[in-house]
Amino acid sequence: MSKPINQASPEDRRDFLKKASAALVILSAHETGAEATQPANPQKSDLFQPESFWADRIMPPEDGKRLGWFVDTRRCFGCHGCEVSCKSENDIPLGNFIRQTIYQDVGEYPKVARLFLPMSCQHCEDAPCLKACPCGAIHKQSGGTVAVDYNLCCGHGTCAEACPYGAIYLDPVAKQAVKCHNCYHRTDEGLEPACVPTCPAEALYFGDLNDPESKINQAMKEAEASTGELQQLRPEKETKPRMWFAGQAPVEVEAKVPQEGESYQAEAYDIYNWKSS
Predict the structure, then answer these.
(1) 3 state SS of 64
(2) What DSSP string runs through 193-204?
(3) What is the mean pLDDT of residues 29-45?
(4) Nearest alpha-carbon partner for 182 in 157, 216, 155, 233
(5) Are 154 and 137 spatial neighbours (Cβ–Cβ below 8 Å)?
(6) Buried b vs exposed e over 35-44: b needs ≥16 C-beta within 10 Å?
(7) CB neighbour list of residue 146: distance below 8 Å, 6 or more residues apart
(8) What are the boundaries of each domain within the chain?
(9) DSSP-derived secondary structure for 122-165
(10) What angle do CA 77, 82, 86 make, to 5 degrees?
(11) What is the pTM of this model?
(12) Does 241 score more than 80 pLDDT?
């Protein structure tokens, strides 16, 4: 029986992914007789179920909404308030996260700075977790929110293996996949996700991208006017994420964001990891 994904160390998963990637490159070069090149779609499509199994679930309800996120990393000062409110609102157990603020120190003394990157599910339009789910539990809700149906989730873990942002973990008790769901129990009542009003720096924005007057659209326009084009994380994965960033944090911190087969870890805050920042 294979080791559950949430019990494998980040080093084990990273080593496995490196070896698997190397094997695929060698096989590709052998079959084509030429140098291996990057695939057209870097998603882990070998994990996907047949299209007929997920084609209906990947289409959101036709409600005219297009929900998304804007993170102004220029304002974030790493208080972790968003994580605390998220864990409280969603009863996330100790040591697990569906939202995590990842940081990186830049510069040289005495001109140094610490950059913060608040991370969570990107609610991708072309969501690889949804395509990989073997029990049909992951689906689109109002506005395109990617959510898990816990009446169907079997805890297989393939969704976490396919997520290129490390945004899913397996609950150690329920043995089911857990991820950000845009606090749809709140947004369906006209409220914001719990993390947004908690942020004292007003670095998090959530709303309807189809509404030109929404707070998120206004904030994104202002950020673009002052910093230029906004950024998305790992666009080469072609998942069409619904999260945009302003500031330098996405560039500087990206290497520390979990990848396929990984999840947010409490060890990220370990004092012994400070030296690697």
Answers:
(1) coil
(2) PTHHHH-TT--E
(3) 49
(4) 216
(5) yes
(6) eeeeeeeebb
(7) 121, 123, 124, 127, 129, 130, 138, 139, 140, 179, 181
(8) 10-276
(9) ---TT-HHHHH-TTS-EEE-GGG-EEE-TTT-----HHHHH-TT
(10) 165
(11) 0.82
(12) yes
Considering just the CA atoms, what is the radius of gyration of the chain in Å? 19
Judge whether 43 and 58 are in contact, CB under 8 Å: no
Residue 172 CA to its chain's centroid (Å): 20
CA distance 162 to 246: 26
What is 10-276's CATH number, 3.90.226.10, 2.60.120.200, 3.30.2130.10, 3.30.70.20? 3.30.70.20
Decide: helix, strand or coil at residue 181. coil
Distance of CA 59 to the CA centre of its chain: 19
Q: Which tokens sit at 125?
A: 């339009």
Q: How confident is the model at residue 273 (pLDDT cuts 50, 70, 90)?
A: low
